[in-house]
Predict the structure.
Amino acid sequence: MMRMQANIYADCHENDRGYQGAALELPATPYEVRDALQRARVPEGGGYTLEGAGGWPDFLWSALFGDTISGENALEELNLLADAVSRMDEMQAGIFEGAAALHMEETGKETVTLKELLNLSACLDDYEFQPGVTNDVSLGRACMEGGMLDIVESLPDEVAALLDPAKVGKALRNSDHGAFTPRGYVYRGSAAVRQDFYDGEHLPACGENHQGLLSLRIEKLDAPDADSGVWLELPADEKAIQWALLSVGEESFDACRIAEAKSIIPAFQYQLAGNEDIGKLNILAERLQELQREMPGELMLMKYKAVLELEQYSDLDMALDIAANLGCYDFGPDILSPDAYGEYVLQSAGIDTGDPAFSYFDFRGYGERQMEQAGYVFTPYGTVSRGGQEFVHEYTEQGQVSGQGMAME
């Protein structure tokens, strides 16, 4: 599957020292989108802008990223477009490029909006595509050989042989209202006018919409198909667990494996697979649910993700114990970067950092040293440090959880 990248920048932090936004690979799950907005420190309902960061087809890059993208649904729209593009084969990608070019010709505009691109991506069947036909000469030759223009087909062979392929191609292109792309020739084959599938307000669903804080695709150990099995949304009650086992035709999870995982905690998607204890995973999901309810705005989940980075989370037991011991840590979500922390320390001491003397000051280096001295570690979610509260080991061994050289006793 083709992957594309975008960078997200919160409008409210645009001028903050050291602020770098957050990168996101598309298409992304709703969990990953939410996490990226958190890493970019976009407040609930706050504005943001998007920039392309690689992987996009050239024609989309020029159409989309001539300027920054913004708007209430901009990230979801861009993600929906990336999802559509990632599913296209070479033929469909060529049609899409041509459809966008035709739309610009018809509207007289030099670019295409995200909404227009989304609606064009949904009606590629309305277009015809001739791969490799990239100019009037090659189109004219294809026309003369294939009888694509009625007036040419009716001419005697000796007369048709005298025709200029370039002029024939131009006549056909004008007749078709077609357009050339680097991939081939595109024209609208259907006169039917489709209703837009996206109205600019109500976003269609993008990919799988999992409801669990941990979502697991369970399959038999000897499953032959790559996408077999059933999704189990955690936390789950006994009835849901038994239904999942019944669906895969097993009596216990001992004969099953976790083939795929999705989670509100992105790090878990790539580590909770194989033969992990599903009972423990259900307990972890219950603890995540408690964190989600504890404070508004998912601040505790952000703190949890920051602590996972501090402790260099390595296994399920550690993830479980950290979730139950967040009171052992101090979290500073308002620190956007080491640079900003360095400036904060200086300003707190009454120093005017706007003075020209600080034009070439190394705020990042100074901030990093000050954070280290204060016991803070910077993560994409904010600063985090080990507090004085005792860490209770339920699943891990004493001393197993240690953060950046700080003993966990």
Observations:
- The CA atoms of residues 346 and 352 lie 8 Å apart.
- DSSP finds 15 helices and 13 strands in the chain.
- The radius of gyration is 28 Å.
